[in-house]
Amino acid sequence: MKKAIGLDLGTTTLGLAVSDSLGLVHPRPVFEFPKKAYRRAIARFLELVEETGIREAALGYPLNMDGSEGEAALRSRRFKEIVEREHPDISVHLVDERLSTVEAYEEMNERGVKSRRKKGLVDSEAACIILERHLAKERENAGNQGQ
Fold it and tell me: φ and ψ at 24, to 5 degrees?
């Protein structure tokens, strides 16, 4: 199975996750950066690319509930454009991340994660969900091609 990196881009944090050759998704520590210092977030992502050798990413695309783009979605689009322009060997897929943070909190509640730990983990949990959505879509598309 193809490996990929999951990204949840916030205004001051970058949630990270990676998949393995079995398609299992593993959270990585959240990367914190100064507000609007997105080049630092890109640099951290590129470090993870070099560390893992993975050249495909699923980036959360936070559309509004009506499907329109807001400032957060435009931020993700710009992140993708910069990475792909400066590193054409890396592909970044925008993944609808609506309600991924809510889902991340629900999953942590089910696992019994203490409230004080949730804030530090939620972005990586959301990155896992984004990556899982991307991988599921890839499997679905591969299955449809075989029909």
Answer: -80, 145
User: What pLDDT sits at residue 49?
Assistant: 97
Domain boundaries, the chain: 5-145
User: Strand, helix or coil at 63?
Assistant: coil
Residues 6+ apart with CB under 8 A from 103: 126, 129
In this predicted structure, which of 38-47, 73-82, 116-125 has the lowest mean pLDDT? 116-125
User: What separation in angstroms does the CA of 143 have from each of 31, 58, 92, 136, 147?
Assistant: 35, 20, 22, 10, 7
Q: Which CATH architecture has domain 5-145?
A: 2-Layer Sandwich (3.30)
Tell me the residue type at 76: S
Banded model confidence at residue 117, pLDDT cuts 50, 70, 90: low
Q: Is the pTM of this model over 0.70?
A: yes
**Angle 100-111/115-145 helices, nearest 10 degrees?**
120
Would you say 84 and 34 are in contact if contact means Cβ atoms under 8 Å apart? no
CB atoms within 10 A of CB 71: 8
